Amino acid sequence: MAHHEGFPGLEEVRFARDEDLGGLEVRLARYKDFAFANHWHDCFSIGAALNGGSLCIRNRDNSVIRTGQLCLLNPGQVHSGVPARDVGITYLMFYVDPGEMRRVATRVTGRDDGCPEFHSVISADPELFQAMLRLDRAVFGKGGLLTRESLSLSALAELLVRNGHLRPDARRDGDEPGAVSRAREYLADNLSGPVSLDDLARAAGLSAYHLLRVFKKAVGVTPHAWLTQLRVERARRLLLQGVSPAEAALATGFYDQSHFTNTFRRFMGVTPRRYRLLR
Fold this sequence. Notes:
Largest sheet: 10 strands, antiparallel
Order of helices and strands: EEEEEEEEEHEHHHHHHHHH
Radius of gyration: 21 Å
Number of strands: 10
Distance between the termini: 45 Å
Helix content: 40-55%
Oligomer: single chain
CATH class of the largest domain: Mainly Beta
Number of domains: 3
CATH topology of the largest domain: Jelly Rolls
CATH superfamily of the largest domain: Regulatory protein AraC
Structural class: alpha+beta
């Protein structure tokens, strides 16, 4: 943990930036005695309170963020950070470039209406809170490209729909059953390399936002969860053929041996090495 000079009581825990997600930055920090002066950012700032609480905007009774809630700030919106007495706050901050948020809004509505904005400061929606936590885990856990892109689009889109008054495009976007089938075929044919959400959407013939919704409705899981299951199943078959765990991981798109081992064990209950001995 890095301690910052000139910021008494502020302890930065971790920080990450994901260029695949339009430069999304995620920070986990905790502070107790330090209060931020009024300031602003040139990006969207989304805070998720993991523990404790803080006043987000001075002189606003409805801008106190508490455990399990989100603070939603638009670019240029002046805010502060005054932690709850004797408790402080541990929180995640997501910094989203305005251009990226505009692209998300366009994917939701099917048209470019300019940069969106949040219409409320505090969100007590537990589903949105959990969506941001999943995005954090994917970014810091170095999840696959499709996983990170899908979780980012889903979370940010729902934030805008529920707190920015965006209306999803109501038009039917192509042949949905056929699109889901094409998406499944594309995933099966691309196990060894990174799969992007845009490439999958093009193969399916749907917009990325619409595909995420109809795919889960049709098969019960998200495209990235389906891809993970496909990779485990293909790896399992390779192991039974005598392929080494390292070779099986490489052939099925797992980015390192640890990731492969942990994922395989989560689905199969044993490590790849032990499973290989069963043949």
